[in-house]
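Hi W.,

Here's what went into the run:
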Amino acid sequence: MKQTGNRTLNLIVIFSLFVTVLATVISLAFFRNRLRTLTAPVNGPVSYDRHYAFICDNPQDNFNNAVFRAASEEFEAGGDYLEFMGKNLNIPYSRYELMKIAINARVDGIIVESDDSEEMTQLINKAAEGGIPVITMGTDNASSHRNSFVGFGYYDLGQNYGKEILKEIKDETQTVLVLMRQDTENSAQNIIFQGIRDTINKSESSRYFRLRTLAVSESSTFGAEESISDLIMGDEPLPDIMICLSELYTNCVAQALVDYNRVGETSVYGFYTNRTILEDIRKNILTATVTVDTAQMGRYCADAVREYKEYGFVNEYLPADIKVITASNVEHYIDREVQGVE
Amino acid sequence: MNKGKQISVQNKLLLSYTVTSLLVIIVNIVMFVSINNITDSLNRAYETNVLINVLTDSLEMVQSSMTEYLNTKSSDSIEGYYDHEQKYRDDLQAVIDSGTGERLYSSIELGGSGSAMLEDIKNLSETYLNIATDTVQSKRGRVVEKYNVSYEEAEEIYGYINSYIYSLNNEQFRYNSENYAALRDSLRYLEMVTIIILIIVAVINIVCTTVITKNIMDPVQERELMMESHLKDAELKYLQAQINPHFLFNTLNAGAQLAMLEEADRTYDFIQNMAAFFRYKIKRSDQETTLREEIGLVDNYIYILNVRFSGEIHFEKDIDEDCVNVAVPGMILQPIVENAVNYGVRNIDREKLIRLSIYKKDGCIEAEVTDNGAGMSQSRIDEVMSGSVSENPVMKDSNGVGLINVISRLRLFYDIRDVLEIISEGEDRGTTVRIHIPFSGEDD
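Here's what came out:
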């Protein structure tokens, strides 16, 4: 009987000590693990073989950010690092200045949202002289020594708009207003417009459409929004069809239509996708949006730089796919957006 | 055995306290090491902050001394320029060395963007210093157009570097803030863990102590202690009675001799029996004896009583001789017989009969005292068995050991609750007291 008591006591002591030791070890292990995850900065230290620069006009632009994300992932997978130039700086440098910084910092390659200006041409050429490969993205600078252009066919884009507009045919003549940037350095929108015009003119129903353009004034910082509000707010009847050639215009037009209660008075064709644009299509505020596969563009940019580094040459032009999103297929894109897929 | 157990209890207490204390110590050590690690990493990060600030200062000195030279072309300023240039290179190297010192600055406590920025600063600085040196050289060589152009270029890059350093410092600050928040959270968590473990350890200690101390007073030990106390109780009662036996015993011996001299044989026998009775009582009251001796005592007792009461008690014995050598506690049969005489047969008018039987049954030896006397009611039996009857320790005509004392001693000795039973069919129908003596089959 005494032995049984002793055995029970031993069991209790051993068991409780075991439980305590176990609890201690588990909680300390959990603590150390927690400490590790907490002290690691959000974008933890990285080691990389090569250091590339990504330069764009507007670092806040969703389109540019989407391209950057895809390219960055592609570089990261290969052990390289892509720096979004100007994003962490306290001064909002222009892309020309950022080009100078990248050249002087002797990066291994530059991906730049270019334009047709002479200054950009010179900077690209200077980089090329310094042995830094330059890939233009979105907007080309064909006269420079850039190694490759990753973009989309602007003419194609215009044709896509044109085809969509032709579906709106009615018995009467309709006005089509294309909102364009008041920006002479950017030939891209002219090519898009050309695509729209040619598609409509070549069709049999061209007489039912009258094309107009409107240069949106961006003279002040929030000028675009003001100009578009003025247009929608005015007493004149709205054009039957509106085409917005930027993400910003698309958002502004949709918001203004809702604000001034003029939804349904005009068919709006937007550019690019974001959550708001997709929701607006679902609510029939926007008729459709034409967008480019940004993930594909990002991958093409990374591939182009790498290919040039490795083989010394690369395709001059890498076009990304163009997609049209309407109310009929918008749910699919919203689902992907929710799941975090570009 | 007793000593061995004490050591093991001591060891157990020691073990439980040692292990729990060790746990507390380990928890504390881990806590301190963790805090030290966090503080170290914060310190390192701040060190980089300090180095970056120094870098800003020395870059400014380079720029200002260059500007001064371009303005004055003094030999002091050119010396100052070269000194500051060298200092800037050293400071830059110090910042880079706070990382790996190689092209990759991954071990610097910075995010990916921070590492890339530091590389940009390093390369921009090299370009800047080259252009600045070019500018100074051109000024010396009086190539006016060239130094004007390269001065502008140097100033532009100087602006970029400053902006980068400023932004890097910001990044660093953001990272440090994150770390600080993490440190605070971790400390809070650690605090909770420590408190919980301390509570668990305290509870375990309490449980261990309770269990161990309870174990010291286990039932066996408790029984031994009670047995001892009952014996002491019996001893006390006998001490009260002992004055008489000693005196009587000596006196009786003298009486026996006198009877022998006078050839009074019956008187001699009587006195001898009395002497034997009291001798036994003195000798056997507190130790083990055999059933045989107990029976002998009963014989003495009955003989004495029959002389007193002119042989009116009929005593019968039915003894299995195989059973009489078994060891029993002393003074168990005589008190029962005395009880049978005093409460059973004394006041009846019919023939007074007492019967003592010893026999084996179901592996036990049964010692049975039966009388044909007054009998007992069931409630009275229950009272006696539960010990709730108060007994006068030294009753008139009693030798002082009551039935309840016998029952308690038997129970303690054999550790069996039902070691004794009292059977009576009711008033005036006699009583049987039966003792069940556990019997292993071998006599002592």
